[in-house]
Predict the structure.
Amino acid sequence: MKRIPTITTESGRYFLTDRVRDEVDFWDTPQSEGIQPPPVQKPPPPGSRIIPLPSRENWSIAPCDLQSAIGNRASHRRFTEELLSLEELSFLLWSTQGVRAKLHEAAVLRTVPSAGCRHPFETYLAVLRVGGFEVGIYRFLPLENSLLFVRSVDDLPAHLIAATRGQGFTGQAAVTFIWSVIPERTEWRYAEASYKVIALDAGHVCQNLYLACEAIGAGTCAIAAYDQLLADNLLGVNGDDEFSIYIAPVGKIALRK
């Protein structure tokens, strides 16, 4: 799909205002033209290494009181060297992009809200200390509840620190969540309004990660200050049809006194 052009004005503030409606027909969309929607998940390349994740029924994650999770939520930039277990990682992935139900080929219900049920994100993981996992880049396959091994990266901590503009704690996390966005999924329904709702949707996803970390004695810190080119290169995406949009390192934290 051809990328919808960004409207420019003297103020440059149409991004979050309704004034743009005077210049764009929000309902002249690929959906209204009868064009089929893009896939809800990037398909794995042929011959990929795919690792199944533990199903929710088999977790031993202790229940977490929501009021306590919200009250204790904080950004953490110091992590212990403790490993994250596969079960804990599976829980965090389910909490942020898990599939609750598949409505049809064009839409799935997930554990986070998304405008028009479009869910434009792909979840990549820079794994450093997850039990039983090779250090490297992985991608979550929510429809299969599996991880796709993307590639190994020499000195991955250094690449993470460089991509986040020198924020050293990214190289000390057990795993760093890097969400990419495929704008076409949202543009199919919302045209120029996509840029507003994609930003809102990203916040929903990361807030769920914050709260889920509280249940496993972990912490995270949302990062929007990153080098776009380095982050995109780390994921192996082209920066146009798909690009990184949000980063959140996760690691175990020292118990609060």
User: Anything to note?
Assistant: The chain is about 25% helix and 20% strand. The radius of gyration is 19 Å. Residues 1-5 have pLDDT under 50 and may be disordered. The first strand starts at residue 50 and ends at 52.
